[in-house]
Amino acid sequence: MLWRPWKSCSSILGLLIYLLECVTAHIPPYPTGSAFSATRSSSVLGGTQQAITFDRLLVNIGDDFNPDTGRFRCRMPGAYYFSFTVGKFPKKMLSVMLVKNGMEVQAMAYSGNRNEGRKVHSQSLMISLKPMDTVHLLLQKSPKYAIYSNVGPYIAFSGYLVYTDPTSSVSYLSNHLSPPGLHLPGCPPFVDHYYDWRRKVAHEEPRSAFSVARTSSTKGESKGHRKREALTFDVEYVNIGGHFNKTSGRFTCHFPGAYFFAFTVGKHPRRAVSVKLMTGSGEVKAMVFDDDTSQKREMQSQSLMLPLRRGDSVWLYSQQDEGYAVYSNQGRYTTFSGFLVYPDGESVDRNFLRP
Q1: Which tops the pLDDT comparison, 331 or 239?
Q2: Which residue of 57, 195, 327, 340 could cross-link 208, Cys pair, CB 3.0 to 4.6 Å?
Q3: Which strand (E) or helix (H) includes residue 350?
């Protein structure tokens, strides 16, 4: 029989196409995002467990969160926003920490009030993560502490990837198991090139995000304070674009659009707390307030979205009159975060889509 090489090549090519179609048909689309939200419907007493676990998983894009262990494992390097809410158990104190890699306390929710009432306390921040980094909530081990919940539920934990890291050379990690019998050593996972963090900056949308914290308290010292000074910060978790100045305490808008802001402040013992989110020279947009002057330490949180134009500034103002204060320590009770959610369309066209 006469060998016809073009027919052999055609047959081999057809076989390769068939095998490729079979393989790709069994590979689930590789998730390009990461987000989770989980709740817990029962209380937890201090000393009974390490990480807080969850019994209801509402969202888990990328399967990066394990509700049975309460741990989020980073798969894609970037800036992640986390928020949590916990209920205070009657006659117990509350101390819940957001922990990175098992030991690094990033921020906390705290209440030293041991009365019979139930309260809900919240905290949020943005941190930079690398693949294999983990994040979880940790309840103080002492039996003096507890968190409360019921079918309501009072306890919730959420997180999501805000911006991938465009400077990282680390590849995707997978939190997925390969389909049975499918072994593809050396083959990279599917990457959506639009979301590929290694793409050139020229093709990215504008990015702006910050998250900061204080490790010390500040007290008002005079009556009728004349000048409003911004609350400053000494810990910087994230500052994408460099648009937040922690020394001055002010964020300056570089990309017009809709921004999300969130802040949490600690109440100082025997002092009231009054902190306002300000824009420009002092226009109040939102505030937290607690005039309880007992010796207990507690926390107040607030969040909102604002439309900003280039050059607008956003900052926190703590009432500086005598009798007011903001409490914090190395546990980082006081935090402030913000990031661009939707850029103004004209701004994107003008700054990023120029030929």
Answers
A1: 239
A2: 340
A3: helix 345-352
